[in-house]
Amino acid sequence: MRTAEINGEGVRLRAFRPEDAEALAEGYNDPVSQRFLTVLPSPFTVAHAETFIAERIDALFAEGGAFYAVADPETDELLGGVGFDKSVPSRGQAEIGYWVGPWARRRGVATAAVRAMSAHALKHGLQRLELLTHWDNPVSQRVALASGFRREGVRRGAQPRRDGGRDDMLAFARLAEDDGEPIARLLPDLPGGELTDGVVRLRPLGPGDLGFLTELITLPDVVATSVPPEPPSPGKIRQRCFWAEAHWLAGNRADLVIEDAATGEPAGDIGLFNDEPATAQAMIGYSMLPAFRGRGFATRAAQLLSLWVFAETGVARLIAGAVPANLASQRVLEKAGFKREAYLRSRLPGPDGGRVDDVQYVLLAEDLLAEGPRLDG
């Protein structure tokens, strides 16, 4: 399967050369590479790079794998590397991996390289390629989806960390029979990265929101209306922030921060839980910091999110619930256009192992078309 070069869209895969050693060392010593490629020595020196080029690449090919330099087709500048290893001949399977130097990122290099390498490998004997990536590496997840790899599940404890622990990994795969086209997403990105009506702004939750989210979802009254009604651990809060984009890309939920559009201050959060794609039904939930309650922010956020959901996703029916005593939340939903539809007895887990009732509200796309957006607070 070893070949002189493989041409991709805007990239050329070629053999590594001794003169690539300095750029290889710079790329592998980059903080992003060191974070996610935990098998690398730290620091990764030019001497490491020279040994890698002289010895390790030939060994990879001898083991049934491959590794190529990703180069600029015009200048031959080294941009990164791509290849596969962990070959299982009896299954026609291997695991693809790649890196891109910080000087070449955000140019589509990784996607072009992975697409070219995948097409070549699946055309010359392999039947299945896997791509594993960390939960908190959404860039790699986007590359996988753009390269025709479908998310299949989670490999628990699959990746050793430098501190001796192990990380779960998201598993994506592409088969020889797949067309290689980008995988369609259930939840697209927000237009321009946000939704706003000039009063509130919704943007995706991210790692930088750890302090704000901790303050919000550990408030006693927020905990009391959570499912289950228990304070989340610091680890769970961190996961929610650092894994939010992975969930969005998977299409199962979208977590957003509600901001005061005038000041940029975080005021609350709102989430879309896409748990029933087969029936085109999803759920929303929200919570607000005390200083921003009673100002119509939650209503506006629910309206903005609903408009986006019906316009940009396949969801046809939005549901939301509130415990019977939470009259403020019920008023938010009614002002946002939701209709009360059911009273569900003992639907939710309650304090001390008990159960609590749930008042359920529903919003349909035709409801919004009939009434139009109601952004009056």
From TrEMBL:
Matches recorded under CDD domains: NAT_SF
Family matches, as Gene3D superfamilies: 3.40.630.30
N-acetyltransferase domain sequence ranges: 11-177, 200-366
Pfam family, one: Acetyltransf_3
Entries under InterPro entries matching the protein: Acyl_CoA_acyltransferase, GNAT_dom, Ribosomal_N-acetyltransferase
Name of protein: N-acetyltransferase domain-containing protein
Species name: Paractinoplanes deccanensis
